[in-house]
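re: ur question from the group chat, yeah i did fold both. here u go
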Amino acid sequence: MADPKGFLNHGREVAESRPVEERLKDWNEVYVPGSLLPIISKQASRCMDCGIPFCHNGCPLGNLIPEWNDYAYREDWAAASERLHATNNFPEFTGRLCPAPCESACVLGINQPAVTIKNVEVSIIDKAWETGDVAPQAPERLSGKTVAVIGSGPAGLAAAQQLTRAGHTVAVYERADRIGGLLRYGIPEFKMEKRHINRRIEQMRAEGTRFRTGIEIGRDLKATDLKKRYDAVVIAAGATTARDLPVPGRDLKGIYQAMEYLPLANKVQEGDFVAPPISAEGKHVVVIGGGDTGADCVGTAHRQGAASVTQLEIMPRPNDERNAVSQPWPTFPMLYKVTSAHEEGGERVYSVSTTHFEGDEDGNVQWLHLAEVEFVDGKLTQKPGTERKIPAQLVTLAMGFTGPDRENGLVDQFGLELDERGNIARDADFQTNVPGVFVAGDAGRGQSLIVWAIAEGRSAARGVDRFLTGASDLPAPIRPTDRALMV
């Protein structure tokens, strides 16, 4: 334990954000560059080096949090980076995007603000890139086996890197024009600048991983043909079928799925467009869905100059603090969260449901009609007399995803079985009903967090390695049936 009194001597301090009026003028990350390093050693000293570190249970990767907290406190950044990478391929992704279930499980969090684990993590990895401690790890010898990975999100990239380092020849297939999946086109630049993805891709290329963009398996290349080319296949295509809102007026112009809207803003930052084909500029924007994707739409609309932004959520407003009875420590509680996008303005409305849309004579959406809802006998029911309408000239649907894409033919061409939730079924080694075809990430688990995606990719890689060689030394942090620690 680095400092036995660290948690007594120091309070919790988090990363400093840039002023709202400043950050709304650009698309850079919202945090003040370099603001963490001067405080991070003290923050790391708050870790109590628990005899039973429950933060390990909160994190599906099994991150060695007390160990790299200790190294960060001592400012031994090389050792901290080694411990961090021992369980996580991409800590710069999780350090920026993960909601930190490890902090919810922090023992200190029982009666004090938890250790800033996420901030310590991102400080370590940013320092490691700065000092050159992140280097390619090419395999000593090649196995002669080949693997195709379908999808280049966090699960696909993690599986690909693990398998490449194990000596297999790996090619990653991505249907978009750039590598990264939702990390590239679903996450706005202000949450994670894409330079973080780019340098990881270059590291992986140097290790031997190959990348094939602009190829959609099922459409551009038949799944059966892909299987003939490779000794094993990993499907990490995500859960990309978006939940829709089948109400009157849904076909009006100006209503889009979040993943139709967000990627265009990112493509502007990539230099593909001067201005996005779908823009919130000067419009009254309504975001339907109260989760992280909805918040991404809110922040994007602010930066595009929306006249107003309203975010709707059908569920009641969460509590500000953990309920010790219904959401006891160390479970991951559902709490009211104010993201950087919410700090920038807009209105959040809870316990409402959209009844229909109203448009103008040209077929453009102009109004959203809603009503308040409440739980009656365990079911959400509309409250009489609460109907009203709000201006809506751009509507984004951010209501989650229901499973993998079924329209491109990938599932049917492979002949894959699905589970009761519509995800691709797999066994204990992440293998599907088709020998040699594995599945990792949201395609098999359902919509989940980035930290679970990376854990899935690492675990599936072990299953693939065993299939190809008969044994494996690769780590498998989770089983396919594992779920987050929740009530």
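okk and heres the other one u asked abt
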Amino acid sequence: MNDAPVRQQSTTAFYGQAVASFSVALAATGIGILRLEASAWIRGFLAIAVLYLVTSAFTLAKVIRDRQEAGQLVSRVDQARLEKLLAEHDPFDKV
């Protein structure tokens, strides 16, 4: 049976790029909202909308990751069962 753990597939550079990209996008949006020539109510509404969008995106990413990890676990259990059946099977044994 294969006991190897599921490997992390993203590199440190990819993680760093994702964090930097998120930070730049959030900062640019915040600066854009602050410099917008509109009333404080409109800028406040846009800021709350951006925060809601960010938290929703994080939640969606977590749900997708959790589903994928659950699918991998089920797949690994099925693979282990198949390997056990194949190991116990004797093709020359009479039925």
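fwiw on the second one: The chain has a mean pLDDT of 85. The helical segments are 12-35, 40-88. idk if thats what u expected
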